[in-house]
Amino acid sequence: MDDRNVILEVRDISKRFGGLRALDTVSVAIRRNSVHGIIGPNGAGKTTLFNLITGMLLPDSGQFEIEGKPIKKVRPHQLVSIGVSRTFQNIRLFKGMSVLENVMIGQHVHTPTAVFSIMINGRKSRSAENAAREEALAALGFVGMARNVDQNVDSLSYGNQRLVEFARALAAKPRILLLDEPAAGMNPTEKQHLLRLINSLQQKDYTVVLIEHDMKVVMNVCSTVSVLDHGKKLAEGRPEDIRRHPEVIRAYLGKSDRGHA
Amino acid sequence: MKSIMSRRRGLAAFLLLLIGYHFTPYFVTNLYHLHILNLAGIYTLVVLGLNILSGYTGQVSMGQAGFFAIGTYVSALLMMNWSIPFWSASAMATVMAGLFGAVIGIPAMKLSGPYLVLATVGFGEIVRLVLLNWTPVTKGAAGLVGIPLPTVLGFVVTTEKHFFYLILASLLVGVFIALRIADSKIGRTYRAVCEDELAAEAMGVNINRYKISAFIISAMFAGFAGSLFGSFSGVTSPDNFTFDESVGFLCMSVIGGNRSIVGAVIGAFGLTAVSEALRVIQGFRLVIYGSILVFTVIFMPKGIIGLFRWICGNFSVKEID
Amino acid sequence: MQFFLNGLPIGAIYSLVALGYSLIYAASGVLNWSQGDMVMLGAYVGFTVFFFLKLGFISALFLAIVVVALLGALVQYMILRPLREREAPPINVVIATLGVAIICRNLALGIWGPDPQILPSPVSSRPLSLAGVSVTPQDILVLSVGITLMLILHSFLKNTREGKALRAVAQDRYAAQLVGIDPERSDAVAFAASAGIGAAAGILIAPIFFVTFNMGASIGLKGFVAAVIGGLGTIPGAIAGGFFLGVVESLAGGLISSGYRDAITFSLLIVVLWLKPSGLFLRKNRQKV
Q1: Which residues of chain B have pLDDT under 70?
Q2: CATH architecture designation of domain A1-74+176-198+207-261
């Protein structure tokens, strides 16, 4: 693989929780402008990998490189400036806030916090606020939620909450977008919509890493797939190869050979 | 965008009300009543800061009396010992309280729930006990006597009525600043930190910085209010800054409506008024006061402002549409 | 050594109050700010039984425990259950229990008046000298009754049906509900037990300190500090925290400065909170990400 084409390199990452090896010397190279799927049974270590990349957990060993630069001891909030943003498996929107406000938080690092100007309602603060609002509206427009901006996020359907979280992550203007089970809980129509969104992101020069259980989603959008099982990387390759990979089938279906994927 | 419009209208009405309040001395001629209004105004300044801290960032503080005390003593001592004019003393007191806010904000950022509450209680008690025991400087339990009056543009503020306007002006500025903080990126980020620290962090928010800044802001509000309080009262002692006082501030903030600047104002004036009105009953006055607190948090969980919004939401929106 | 010993009886009192905080916190997650006022009410009820009904110290102790325990259960059913049903935010619960404290304090003021009352000690208060240190029989009484109550509470939690249900609710409220335990009832048990041991603490200190309507504020706060230093929500933590606080206070007051005694205590508290929020005597539980 051409090294210059790798935007995020995960190198020999290990993480233990007590006696449990959540990740065991896992290496993954994510190519620029690709949609990279991470799949594996429950408890394989997929979300742990995301938590490690975003600095929410610290690895026991190994390191990450973004565009060839190692990132070490980066606090989670500094990752957005480096160009990484994420969504969560169990949707973590800011409850009691409107859709627009939620997405505007995504703009946090891109708008100045002019304390004095805020206090006197100065021009600087107003223009920053307007810019943040415009960006947030654009992100909401992109995911197709432009009509719900003033609604409270608590009142949205599950699928729409996922879309708002997606928009919030986009508003952070990442180069690398980490999506943790973006299609979970969505109905087939919503899934189709999501697939189109991810495809168009790829055309817009984003790199997307997604954890997904739904094989249909993975097969449809991913250019590369890595399979994790019990903290180890089992296989990696194009989706159509992965689907036929004997180890992968065994990991997913157990040792019995009654295969119905 | 409609919600923003109606919100603006509500705010405008509220500010008009505050300005209308400025005619109060013409019909409240009883000096005692005016005195109570002035006190309520000073308390409101403390509650404004506390509302930002406890309502917006969710960091419940039961130690605001500590910052209030620091404001009072620092400005009073500066004026008495070094003859520093009121406004400079007040500014220094505000900054000093803010520094203490940062000091207590540092351990506080690691804490939440009962632990944070207890840390703030501890802070408030430490301040009070130091004031009580550091006799050479603070005059101990006897407290300070003869705190100089403030001067505004060469004009010495002496009567209740003069103080009324000084406090009203401070209150207007305070409300404006608090509204700006609450209604801006800062307030939005505070709410996000309160709702979900992890998600806020993943969006690039430095949560420690925001949590400490809320402590500093609330401490500065309390510190400034304290400096007014000292000059307004003329005397002060550690008894003015007990745990009960901190509890009172918190009750005002919650009863008015936590996470609402307008609610903070309503809560501070409302509870002061209730407490004064109950004086008529004597005897079991505070029993009723306590019952009102319990009743309110059970039946009006979002405070007076919550009830207000609920009423507006049920009756007026249809008309506007 | 003398200061260390002096700290033990007051430490036992703090332990009893801290147990009340921890028991309620473990069961229902509520921080009960009226705990100190249960101590005060216990002292007053004991005082009334002793002087007006002319019953002995033991009956005063029992009656006070029963009356105040019932009051505790009443607080849970009348105030905390409706709050929980309405899913009130934690800060509202805090304000509600503060409201209860204000109500109790001022009811006591209305009933028993503002003058401090004193309950005579059932045993002699003349100090006994033993190997160079002096202890009063009252101190010994406080310690022995205090420790007995802790043992009773322990066996109540271990061996009775209600006690086991309470522990189950403390472990996992939802799961307890699934196996047929009524968590509201367990909360009421926790409130009653906490109020009861608080009342006992009130009677035990009544002969040492004066009984006043606002004595609950400071003793309640100290008990809370003890519970948190020991590790809020745990029984051994509360006991250890209480004795620890009693001894530290006695040492700080005796060796450093009596005026700054409480300031030292609170500074210690903030340092403990900062360095080890889960308490001094517990292994740290990592929060799950």
Answers
A1: 1-10, 26, 314-321
A2: 3-Layer(aba) Sandwich (3.40)
